[in-house]
Amino acid sequence: MTAAEPTIVATSGGHQAGRRTRVMFDALVHHAIDLSGVHGRRPRILYVGTAIGDAEHFTSRMTEAARVAGFDLTPLHLFPMPNVEDVEGSVLDHDVVWVMGGSVVNLLAVWRAHGLDRIMRRAWQAGVVLSGVSAGSLCWFEGGATDSFGPELRPVTNALGFLPYSNGVHYDSDEGRRPMTHRLVADGTMPTAHCTDDGVGLVYRGTKLVEAVSEVPGRGAYLVTRDGDRAMEERIEPRRLPAPRE
Fold first, then answer.
1. Most buried residue, 10, 157, 206, 211, by CB count within 10 Å?
2. CA–CA distance, 214 with 145 (Å, rounded to integer)
3. Which residues are catalytic, by number?
4. C-alpha–C-alpha distance, residues 145 and 132, integer Å
5. Which segments of 160-220 are extended strands (E)?
6. pTM for the whole thing?
């Protein structure tokens, strides 16, 4: 079972501390599973931790979170080499891909070295739901502001470009991201930006934004567009998702 059309869920959330585990999947991950259309069996989620160097401790936490949620999780590691023989077959065998945050610049370089950028596009076109948090959101767009190069935010302009917009993540919790996003859009470095506060996700069918959703009350999503030499910001009120049962 796959989504009816190419689907991306780009977020600044998806995880929270669990009662019995270090991490549990929050409503945004569950929503990505729902959008895949899977039913009658345990959902299959592919966890990709390239942006944090395939850190084993976090792979372990995500595996435990999936067990609690009732999902079957497979980690795709690229360090020190791919942990599966057939990377493309493994990606296509899952309902949802969840990409962890970290360094989007490093993620893009490693994915391209292994051809995973092309594999992800084929999976997206085949109906595998692509999703993720922070770097795992930004990667699907044209680019956006990132701290991949150091503490000072800088633009990345060579992301995968499946979605023809730029992306702003952690829009409410990192005070530098809003002004930098406005500057990048105003001077034409980046196209229209689609931005999320922490706990908010954006759902795309094909390349069309169809809905903003949230696992946290009071948070927002935003469109930042260019008007002459200025940036204009419009808030989108997200639909609140039901909390997952623990």
1. 10
2. 22
3. 134, 170
4. 16
5. 166-168, 193-196, 200-205, 208-214
6. 0.96
